Amino acid sequence: MPSVLRVALPVPLPTLFDYLPPVAGDAAAGSRVLVPFGRGKAVGVVVEADVPAHVGSTRLKRVSRLLDPSPLLDAELMQSLAWAADYWLGAPGEAYANALPLLLREDKPLPETREPVWQLTVAGRSALDAASRRGSSRALLQALVEGPLSAADLDIRLADWRAAARRLGEAGLIEKGAAAAASLSTSVVAAPLLHPEQAAAVDAVASAFGRFQPFLLDGITGSGKTEVYLALIQQALAQGKQTLLLVPEIGLAPQTVRRLRERLGVPIEVLHSNLAEGERARAWLRMRSGEAKVVLGTRSAVFTPMPQAGLIIVDEEHDSAYKQQEGFRYHARDLALVRGRALQVPVLLGSATPSLESLANVEAGRYHALHLRSRPSAAHPPQVQIVDMRAQRLEHGLSPALLQAIGETVARGEQVLVFRNRRGYAPVLLCHACGWHAECPRCERPLTLHAAWRKLVCHHCDNQSPVPAACPACGGQDLKPQGQGTERLEEALAALFPQVPVLRIDRETTRRRDAFEQLLDNLQEDAPAILVGTQMLAKGHDLPNLTLVAIVGVDEGLLSVDFRASERLAQLVVQVAGRAGRARKPGRVVLQTHHPDHLLLRHLLAQGYAAAAKALLAERRQAGLPPCGHQVLLRCDAHQRAAVDAFLSEACAALPDSDAVQIAGPMPAPMPLRAGRQRGQLLIESASRRDLHAVVRPWALHLTQLPSARKVRWTLDVDPIDL
Ligand code: ADP
Ligand code: ZN
Ligand code: ZN
């Protein structure tokens, strides 16, 4: 057998591919190679080097070219990726592709880690002095006279500099160079004196530097978790070590970046999907080379190389944004823990509302719990009140008690947040004459009325249609919006409180970049205002004059069939409530519901999140549900229901007989039709993760070979978070 390279290629197939080594160069595990694939070429990552070819590997092709003389992915990253591909049952090639920024998946030289800049040459300086150039050329020379500028800087200063740069470059008046390493910010903001709980948390984690130990930092919003992160990153920096800080959303990034930069006085790398590809690749490479010490990023930043790893932090660890929901379905929090073990560093998970998964790990003694129980800034935790909506006369879905509370708050010159997790004007458009309602033909779900756009929109598939003038079923004119979305609440509140500014914050009003921050910047701190919005409002800016949080329309969450709905609702209520009374003024939270006696609400409001979570965890344990049991979900969709049924029953029949796993289904998905495709699923459960994987791993390979698999789209989801 010849010795070959085993290569991961970015294709959704459950295999690695064998190639003969390149003619020139020594390809090692972690190096990228260009290989012939199909009718074209592909860039892959060498997973194993110098291994005997599989029996039967005939007609082996040769690697066309070695792209990295030394491995781009180090041994730890390769090991963690192999673990991830195996655990989440992903195609190995897709796992490796996820780990690399897009630019590094191409057959191109690695980009300079320093941002390229334009600078004046000696000739350029004389040309400027002699005033021999005019117009845009002169403007560019002038802009560069104070020092080199990057393309991004120039874009801000000059409208059309690129043509001028080309002309001046050809004339030798300016040249491209590499910037000096990003300079340290000069003014470093002093850290506050940590209070005892913060200091204890910092000491606990710092004493675990150099070994793997997970911690759960459990502290309400505003209790000072970020200060704990900052102190620890500083300690890691002092030892020359790198830190990875994961956040669930880009929206959280700008504020946090600013805070980190001001405090730490070192460049902070940022990694998220809104960045230009060049930026992402450079940030990744600067961490790989050790030039950069701190990276802040969203989910996929968990794949950043950390050759000098010191610490991994996962903020808001309960957030479902950490789970990738398509392609390679990994969970960034869980992968952060795997990397922490491989790198031998502590992993700090932080949250005001920890996931039941992490709480179970604390109970089992695997994670060490750290608590921040007090708020350094505000003396009073918000006071929470349930308003029973039953048999109340509602105005636009708002109860008299709630309207009174809003009125009192704005009369005192303070601010109100009305939380409603539904965009649009109304979730349903109903014919009052015959009962017809507008429905998405591709999903068979009600369409949401968006009044400002004059459109009906499907929130499941984005299908849009004009609002009918008359009922398509009976021709009646009496079409009535049912229920309230944020758009309708904004309208209603503006009419009810005409003297107070009403601001809506949801995905529509914040579509533009930075719109969220700009909207909030318009708020006058000492004036009354009413904010209406979705869960985007649960996070972000500190609003010191916000003293009332009104939570409306959460009853759907209480009644949902998804067993995780209660956990999510509890987290959301606590996160939103945490926005009230963050400064010296006491805060108040009003939650209106038709189910005032619901056990979850009672627990939550009487005893807080920890008690509610404990009760939920006990329920899960009793029912054998995650995290106390383990699940793998096979999802499948096709245009024809018959194709879905055929595949799922073949898949089900292919499962081995085993007492260790239970099978639920085949059954229709909770949304049996979506975007015109029929959907079904098969759930495999076990009390033991090991048993579950032992059954599912060979089965997953078998599935690809089922004849019925060709007529459907299917995916396996390990630890699914939505069923
Ligand atoms: P969290 O991340 O838990 O929401 P932060 O770390 O952002 O909390 O702290 C909330 C506010 O309290 C911030 O304005 C922060 O500067 C301030 N703060 C935190 N810890 C202290 C401290 N020990 N002394 C003074 N102010 C603090
Ligand atoms: Zn009708
Ligand atoms: Zn739809």
Question: Could you walk me through the main structural features you see in this protein, from its secondary elements to its overall organization?
Answer:
Residues 206-372 form the Helicase ATP-binding domain. Its cofactor is Zn(2+). Zn(2+) 2 binds at residues 440, 443, 458, 461. 42% of the residues are buried. The protein is globular. By secondary structure, it is of the alpha/beta class. Helix 7 (196-206) packs parallel to helix 8. A seven-stranded parallel beta sheet has the order 11-12-10-13-14-9-15, sandwiched between helices. It is 31% helix and 23% strand. Strand 20 (455-457) and strand 21 form a beta hairpin. It has 21 helices and 30 strands. The model is unreliable at 181-186 (pLDDT under 50). The two termini are 46 Å apart. The chain binds adenosine-5'-diphosphate (ADP) and zinc ion (ZN) (2 copies).
Which structural traits does this protein have?
about 725 residues; alpha/beta; 6-stranded parallel β-sheet; about 30% helix; binds adenosine-5'-diphosphate; binds zinc ion
Low-confidence stretches: 181-186
Mean of pLDDT: 88
What percent of residues adopt helix (DSSP H or I)? 25-40%
Helix vs. strand class? alpha/beta
Q: What is the number of helices?
A: 21
| Gross morphology | globular
Spatial arrangement of strands, main beta sheet: 11-12-10-13-14-9-15
Instruction: Enumerate the distinct ligands.
Output: adenosine-5'-diphosphate, zinc ion
Distance separating the two termini: 46 Å
Largest sheet: 7 strands, parallel
Number of strands: 30
Which strand-content bin applies to the residues? 15-25%
CA gyration radius, whole angstroms: 29 Å
Family: Belongs to the helicase family. PriA subfamily.
Cofactor: Zn(2+)
Organism: Dyella jejuensis
Subunit structure: Component of the replication restart primosome.
